[in-house]
Amino acid sequence: MATADNFMVSDFPDVDPHQFGPDSDAVTLTDPTHDIDGDGTLDTLTFHAEDSLVVATDLDGDHLADTITTVHDDGEYEAWEFHRGEDGEPRWEQA
Fold first, then answer.
1. Cα–Cα dist 31/91, whole Å
2. pLDDT tens-digit profile of 32-80?
3. CA nearest 33: which of 42, 21, 24?
4. CA 80, 9, 37, 39 torsion: positive or negative?
5. pTM score, two decimals?
6. Distance of CA 49 to the CA centre of its chain
7. What are the Cα distances from residue 12, in Å, to 20, 39, 44, 55, 76?
8. Alpha-carbon gap, residue 81 to 59, rounded angstroms
9. Which of 10, 28, 58, 95 has minimal Cβ neighbours within 10 Å of its Cβ?
10. Are the beta carbons of 54 and 69 closer than 8 angstroms?
11. Which residues pair with 36 in a beta bridge?
């Protein structure tokens, strides 16, 4: 039977769910554990950070998270999409 432990890893990106926002840096995903879109490539990492569950997904295979979703213990959640500006600077937009 699948449990939460099957979906957690101990080596995860440095993401503070309470400080994450538009000016956060790019998030590197070196060891995704799940194939969320079913294409045969591992693209998603799920982990706990503080009092939140974080789901980070690399949709284009560049080892950077394209989406970050945080679900806090109180039920609140945020979803973010990664973009690069024309100047090359990373930025996150709330989805």
1. 22
2. 999 999 999 999 999 998 899 999 999 999 999 999 999 999 999 999 9
3. 42
4. positive
5. 0.83
6. 11
7. 15, 23, 11, 11, 22
8. 11
9. 10
10. yes
11. none
